Amino acid sequence: MDFKLSKEQQDIKLAAREFAEGEFPPVAKECDQKEALDMALLEKARELGFVGSYIPEKYGGFGLGFFEKALIVEEFWRIDPGLSQAVISTTFGAEIIIDHASEEQKKKYLTPLVEAKAIMGTAITEPDAGSDVTSAQTTAVRDGDEYVINGSKMFISNATLADYIMVFCKTHPEAPRQRQYSLIMVETDRAGYQANKLKDKLGIRAADCAEVVFKDVRVPTTNLIGREQEGFGQILGLFNRERITVCAQGVGLAQGALEQAIRHIKEREQFGKKIASFQAIRFKVAEMATLIEAGRSLYYRAAWTIDSGQEDHGLIAMAKWYCAQNAVTVAQEALQMHGGYGFFNEYDIARFYRDCKVLEIYEGTKEVEKVIISNNLLGKAK
User: Fold this and answer.
1) CATH topology for 233-378?
2) CATH 1.10.580.10 fits 7-115, yes or no
3) Are 198 and 148 in contact (CB under 8 A)?
4) Which residues of the chain have pLDDT under 50?
């Protein structure tokens, strides 16, 4: 068993680190304050292949695995979580297009994401449908060769920026719950589409987030992704891949927070000596580093199961829960080591502390991950 990264993987990791270190710090605080992505930064990342790195080469991407994508995400989040999320999420949902769309749709929707300046999103969550996605009420009704979409979505990434949004719609209300839904692509310039930016998020503020309203939005039936009634299964597949992304986010954030803490404790003096010399602080650093390495090993293995065609839902849920929890723990301890300075946004650790909590919420709350893990071991509770 070889735990070393390949030469290509090492190069990808290094390139992502150098890009993030060079490009993120000058604009990170401003983007956080303004709650907006620096579009010039996005285009630089796109030109270098960091956006949609997993999109197959025939559609303009690099055709990398989800493990390699995770390596990029980890390095980006190590420097700034908000900017990283804003950049990487511009292809959110492309995984479904790769797996389920027609060849014509793949050319239409994938290629612009990496070769032009297109942005996409995926609209699943609703005001009353979060973890329970089969409570979604947005409908798509056939009318000749069109679907007419009505309803609303909440907390949708890129909704005010995107060129097209893939929408989780109820198309067969009479069917069993998990067979009621389909995925339909909606171009955002269609009549009846409205996105209202949500402001004052706690963290990852550079990433766009909005409420979306669909009022008699008409799209051709050719915008159906895959087949009708398969939307629920398609979304579950997306969640597994995105949970690996969240693992990398958590490990990257924790690594960045630890490095900030180490720099601070090596410089800060109290009681006549560097606080890095106090045993209580040294033990905390040891614990934080161990949590990070354990999380990294767990998500590496979970990512491998996807790229090798041996997708392990239980293991992926374990990795997502554990890496997210570790990020919260490490960020909290890192801020504590900064003392009063960490309480002010002048220090990056304050932003990291705000950014970490979302990891235990999106792409499956920590409670949902534990349900998946326990069901995997014990069977579903009756």
Assistant:
1) Butyryl-CoA Dehydrogenase, subunit A; domain 3 (1.20.140)
2) no
3) no
4) none
- C-alpha triplet 141, 144, 146: angle, nearest 5°: 60
Rounded-to-integer distance, Cα 76 and Cα 209, Å: 20
Q: pLDDT tens for residues 300-320? A: 999 999 999 999 999 999 999
pLDDT at 381: 87
pLDDT digits (tens, 9 = 90+) for 87-100: 999 999 999 999 99
Is 86 in contact with 44 (CB distance < 8 Å)? Answer: no
Task: Supply 337's token pair.
Answer: 């080591």
Helix (H) or strand (E) holding 235: helix 231-267
- Write out the two tokens for 246: 């969240």
What pLDDT does residue 118 have?
98
Question: Concatenated DSSP letters for 322-368?
Answer: HHHHHHHHHHHHHHHHHGGGGGSTTSHHHHHHHHHGGGGTTTS-HHH
Of the candidates 239, 233, 106, the residue with the CA atom closest to the CA atom of residue 181? 233
Give the angle 119-124-129 at the CA atoms, nearest 5°. Answer: 150
The top-level CATH class assigned to 120-229 is mainly beta
Q: Residue 101 in contact with residue 146, Cβ under 8 Å?
A: no
CA 26 to chain centre: 23
What does the pLDDT read at residue 56? 98
What are the sequence ranges of the domains in the chain? 7-115, 120-229, 233-378
Determine the 3-state secondary structure of 214 from DSSP.
strand
Whether 363 is a known active-site residue: answer yes
Catalytic position from the list 95, 211, 360, 363: 363
